[in-house]
């Protein structure tokens, strides 16, 4: 399935998805990397991998939905069927969510439903949790609240800082995001009535 990855910065999750999608049998073909900032470092990573990269500055649009409609036009122009938000630091509008419901997934650096929102690693340390991690989920209008597709857990260590914890979580993000995209692109997992539904294992 023709897939676009939306980024805002470094794009390490995007790079992990590109690497996984390079396998011939992978069920998703990355046809576009799109950023809401023209200086997103991940755009160069995509171009170096031979993937089309485009950017629109969200500041050039009066409202959130105006920007989202411009993004939607970019996606439709390339017959994109699946969207991966990967470090895309924008809250997508309800209009965009409805339009891509069930065909848009995202990664969050925490074990949802814990620690929705920003600064998840510092908040996890402040909360004194012993287990932290990452979640891939379907995107719904409510922030970080979509049905979960995949998760990975990591231990929180005594001497952890937000950066050391973030690095441990990020390594797992790069494992679960490609797995989640494979599950959704292959149809093994889908969004149905607000829940993730998995096809019974046939093999
Ligand atoms: C990652 O922790 C991701 O979970 C969050 O943004 C961070 C940067 O991701 N959404 P990336 O390196 O830009 O993929």
First and last CA, distance: 21 Å
Helical fraction: 25-40%
Largest sheet: 7 strands, mixed
**Ligand names:** 5-O-phosphono-beta-D-ribofuranosylamine
Unreliable parts: none
- Elements, N to C (H/E): EHEHEHEHEHEEHEE
Specify the number of helices.
6
Strand residues, percent = 15-25%
Overall pLDDT = 95
Q: What would the principal axes of the Cα set say about the shape?
A: globular
Radius of gyration, whole Å: 16 Å
**Structural class from helices and strands?**
alpha/beta
Number of strands: 9
- How are strands sequenced across the largest beta sheet? 3-2-1-4-5-6-7
Would you kindly provide a brief summary of this structure?
By secondary structure, the chain is of the alpha/beta class.
Structural key phrases:
alpha/beta; 203 residues; 9 strands; 35% helix; globular; two-stranded antiparallel ribbon; seven-stranded mixed beta sheet; binds 5-O-phosphono-beta-D-ribofuranosylamine
Characterise the protein shown here.
With 203 residues, this protein is of the alpha/beta class. The protein is 35% helix and 24% strand. It has a 7-stranded mixed beta sheet with strand order 3-2-1-4-5-6-7, with helices on one face. α4 links the parallel β4 and β5 (104-108). α1 runs parallel beside α6 (162-185). The protein is globular, with a radius of gyration of 16 Å. The two termini are 21 Å apart. The mean pLDDT is 95. The structure holds 5-O-phosphono-beta-D-ribofuranosylamine (GRF).
């Amino acid at each position: 399935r023709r897939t676009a990855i939306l980024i805002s910065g470094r794009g390490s999750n995007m790079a992990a998805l590109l690497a996984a999608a390079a396998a011939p049998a992978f069920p998703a073909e990355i046809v576009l990397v799109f950023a809401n900032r023209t200086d997103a470092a991940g755009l160069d990573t995509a171009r170096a991998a031979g993937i089309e990269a485009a950017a629109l500055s969200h500041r050039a649009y009066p409202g959130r939905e105006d920007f989202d409609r411009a993004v939607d036009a970019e996606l439709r122009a390339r017959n994109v069927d699946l969207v991966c938000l990967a470090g895309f630091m924008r809250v997508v509008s309800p209009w965009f969510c409805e339009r891509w419901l069930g065909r848009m997934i995202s990664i969050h650096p925490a074990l949802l439903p814990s620690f929705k929102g920003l600064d998840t690693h510092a908040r996890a340390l402040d909360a004194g949790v012993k287990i932290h991690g990452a979640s891939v989920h379907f995107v719904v209008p409510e922030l970080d609240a979509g049905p979960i597709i995949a998760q990975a857990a990591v231990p929180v260590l005594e001497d952890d800082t937000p950066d050391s914890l973030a690095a441990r979580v990020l390594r797992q993000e790069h494992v679960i995001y490609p797995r989640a995209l494979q599950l959704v692109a292959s149809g093994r997992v889908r969004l149905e009535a607000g829940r993730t539904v998995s096809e019974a294992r046939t093999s």
